[in-house]
Design a protein that fits this description.
Oligomer: heterodimer
Distance between the termini of chain A: 44 Å
Structural class of chain A: alpha/beta
Number of helices of chain A: 13
Shape of chain A: globular
Order of helices and strands of chain B: HHHHEEHHEEEHEHHHHHHHHHH
Shape of chain B: flat
Radius of gyration of chain B: 27 Å
Number of domains of chain B: 3
Radius of gyration of chain A: 22 Å
CATH topology of the largest domain in chain B: MetI-like fold
Chain lengths: 379, 401
């Protein structure tokens, strides 16, 4: 298999809140390959945003990487220089991964060379992502001047080209506009243009369409897809909307309680899901529901991390949970070359259980949903 | 005559300019001239004009209110005032009785107390509105041949704004019959250097301090800054002034009496005013910076790979400054008005205690003049504040629609 562009190994991220240390990413290992579109799916609070924030060193001030490595080129992004500062003067967080061998720790300056330039991020809310008091031209040019050492004039020309790339009409005139003059979709286009300006190798899209009007969502997704084909970057999509994922992702990782519970290609996840949480997520897709049947949902709440999680984090909400799920965490089982899932159900000793109806009929319902969608589009 | 011509030309020119701008902005003339449209049809220009217009109305209302207050308080004292007054250095009691009546009638008329209230208001408005006018000094000489006093009208001067005269030397110092407008400007010129230097200290140190505190929020700089702000804020004003006097004069042996030609004597009053003012500035700068610091655009700017200094200095500062910039013209213009306590402590002969002296000696022209000029300055300060805010914040809609 080809060499991954980012390789995460056994990552643990902790947060320091209310005088307590809690781990919100609990041992995640994942490879991201060049040119692919990886979707990370999960409920709010599953740790998907926190996980990708570690790629750009943008954890909140009370977060820290406790263990693990994130290999990107010859760098280890998990190694943060000088992190022994005290938080509110109470306790010093000492890193466990401060071995003297291997890549050197990331300094503030190193991050500036990665952020934006090599790994760009698009955030959820385009209404607030742009500085309201600078023209959109200024905000694009700023990146070009900083990362590509252009002159102001060159940057302006390039910025106008970028605005055209993201399909903002009459780009030359729009250069001097301010964000408040734009709608959400237009602003997200500007945000994408800024991300584009850096020619990143990896684009992290943190729920880029959640705050947008449904009618605009598809336009933005198509734009990202289109630009990806042109610029050949790697996209990491964070979303809680499997519908969005189905549209764009080549590979999907499902996160729950700070862990990846299942990952595989789109086909693996949509047609052969193995983890009960993935089943639940898919069952609750309204598109897969049948007229007349009530919509399915996942009962209970995601884990809060405030007390230590024993066994499988999903077990309390899982109607397929086995006794062992409450006692011991399951290992990652390999289902196929590309498909992995972290559930005891895959253990040969596990009892055979009946999958939910929706999952059994997944292929059929998918086809029906696709047909429905096609009819809607044609209409 | 030439003076009147110039005066009225200026008034005419201003009115013509306003009409011209309105015509261009409404695209009645120069409809297709892009250059003219860009310059004279600029929304900011019209916005400013509108604001100037409403400011003028505010000033006019302030002036009329002052007029009635002064009338209510002093109308009955005109005769007494006339008899206390020295005309050209000659006490009125030494003038022949028939002349006294003439003089007092003339005095009352000059003061604007003659006629019906509406005539008085009309005269008053005419005096202070910028129509050119001539004012003269009345003086008397003793004719040695006849032994009679002769009245002379002399030293005629032109004025744009006439605020009357100060007669009492306890207010005007050694100057006799000084015009209020001259006197106020003299005093402002004395107060201003100290005031403006204090504003420079206030803004020049307050902004960096606020920025520094915001950058190290909850860190040591923040705690030090807060300690200083709370300390200065919790000491009563007068006590604070005397504590600083003790520190500057007692410990650093700086001169305790202000002398315009001695730079060393500036230090104590300037720092006394500036160090108190900067606490508020730093507090608000910090507050707005911290507010902005959690915004999404800051996160996005960081994701763009911008350095922390650029994010702080350009992105956050630009946003934090919008609510703060409005008060900067006011700080600068209020430097003209001096500070009562500091001027008293360091014996600065500025405008600070003029109002209090004038009130004590019933110099109603001085009171009226100072009130009107202060109202004028305040209105201009807030007008400028609004205009700079409009320049700083593109989101402010400049047109009425």
């Amino acid at each position: 298999m080809e060499k991954p562009i980012i390789s995460v190994k056994d990552l643990i991220v902790g947060f320091y809140t209310h005088g307590k240390k809690v781990d919100v990413i609990r041992g995640v290992s994942l490879n991201v390959y060049r040119g692919e579109t990886l979707a990370i799916v999960g409920e709010s609070g599953s740790g998907k945003s926190v996980f990708t924030k570690t790629f750009t060193g943008m954890l909140d001030a009370n977060g820290y990487i406790k263990q693990g490595e994130i290999l990107f080129d010859d760098m280890d992004l998990a190694k943060v220089a000088k992190k022994s500062r005290s938080l509110k003067g109470k306790e010093k967080i000492v890193l466990e991964n401060k071995d003297s061998n291997g890549p050197k720790p990331m300094s503030k300056k190193d991050w500036l060379k990665i952020r934006g330039k090599r790994i760009a991020t698009i955030f959820q809310d385009p209404m607030t992502s742009l500085n309201p008091l600078f023209s959109i031209g200024f905000q694009i040019s700023e990146v070009l001047i900083k990362h590509h050492h252009m002159t102001r004039k060159q940057a302006k020309e390039e910025a106008i080209k970028l605005l055209e790339k993201v399909k903002i009409p009459d780009a030359a005139r729009r250069y001097r506009d301010f964000p408040f003059q734009y709608s959400g979709g237009m602003r997200q286009r500007v945000v994408i243009a800024i991300a584009l300006a850096c020619r990143p190798e990896i684009l992290i899209c943190d729920e880029p369409t959640t705050a947008l009007d449904v009618t605009v969502q598809n336009q933005i997704l198509d734009l990202i897809k289109e630009l990806q084909q042109e610029y050949k970057w790697t996209t990491i999509f964070i979303t809680h909307d499997l519908g969005v994922v189905a549209n764009v992702a080549s590979r999907i990782a499902v996160m729950y309680g700070g862990q990846i519970v299942e990952y595989g290609t789109s086909e693996d996840i949509f047609y052969r899901p193995a983890h009960p949480y993935t089943w639940a997520l898919l069952s609750s897709l309204p598109q897969l529901g049948v007229k007349g049947e009530p919509l399915s949902y996942i009962p209970g709440n995601p884990p809060t991390f405030s007390s230590e999680i024993i066994g499988d984090a999903y077990a309390p909400r899982n109607k397929y949970a086995l006794k062992i799920d409450f006692l011991k965490e399951s290992p990652m089982f390999q289902i196929s070359e590309t498909h992995f899932a972290k559930t005891w159900l895959l253990d040969p000793r596990a009892p055979k259980i009946e999958k939910p109806v929706v999952i059994q009929e997944l292929t059929k319902r998918m086809a029906a949903a696709a047909k429905e969608l096609k009819r809607e589009v044609e209409e | 005559m030439a003076f009147y011509l110039i005066g009225y030309s200026i008034i005419f020119f201003i009115i013509a300019l306003v009409i011209f701008i309105e015509l261009v902005a409404h695209r009645i003339i120069y409809k297709d001239n892009a250059v003219m449209q860009r310059i004279f049809g600029h929304p900011l220009l019209r916005y400013s004009l509108r604001r100037v217009g409403s400011s003028l109305i505010t000033i006019l209302l302030a002036v009329i209110a002052t007029f009635f207050l002064i009338r209510a308080g002093y109308a009955s004292e005109m005769d007494t005032l006339c008899h206390q007054t020295q005309f050209g250095g000659v006490p009125i009691s030494k003038l022949p009785p028939q002349l006294v009546e003439d003089v007092c009638v003339r005095f009352e008329k000059d003061m604007g107390f003659a006629g019906s209230p509406f005539e008085q208001l009309g005269f008053f408005l005419y005096s202070i509105l910028p129509f050119p006018k001539t004012l003269c000094t009345t003086s008397f000489t003793l004719d040695s041949a006849t032994g009679e006093y002769l009245m002379h009208v002399q030293d005629c001067r032109f004025f744009i704004m006439d605020l009357g005269k100060i007669f009492n030397t306890s207010v005007s110092g050694d100057q006799k019959e000084v015009y209020v407008i001259d006197f106020v400007f003299q005093k402002m010129a004395i107060s201003f250097p100290v005031g403006i230097l204090a504003v420079l200290v206030d803004l020049g140190l307050g902004y960096p301090l606020g920025l520094w505190m915001a950058k190290h929020k909850d860190g040591i700089p923040d705690k030090l800054g807060n300690a200083y702000i709370i300390t200065v804020g919790s000491i009563p004003g007068v006590a604070y002034y005397y504590i600083l006097l003790a520190v500057f004069v007692g410990i650093f042996s700086l001169p305790s009496v202000y002398n315009a030609s001695d730079p060393l004597s500036y230090i104590a009053p300037v720092l006394t005013l500036g160090l108190a003012g900067l606490t508020g500035t730093a507090l608000w700068v910090r507050r707005y910076m911290v507010d902005e610091f959690n915004s999404d655009y800051v996160k996005f700017a960081r994701a763009k790979g911008l350095s922390e200094n650029r994010i702080m200095g350009v992105h956050v500062m630009r946003n934090a400054i919008v609510p703060l910039i409005r008060s900067i013209p006011a700080s600068v213009l209020f430097a003209l008005l001096g500070s009562f306590f500091v001027e008293k402590i360091y014996n600065i002969q500025g405008i600070g205690n003029l109002l209090i002296n004038a009130n004590a000696s019933k110099e109603f022209f001085a009171i009226q003049g100072v009130v009107i000029i202060e109202a004028f300055i305040a209105v201009i300060a807030y007008l400028l504040g609004d205009i700079v805010t409009a320049v700083a914040d593109p989101r402010i809609s400049l047109s009425k629609e």
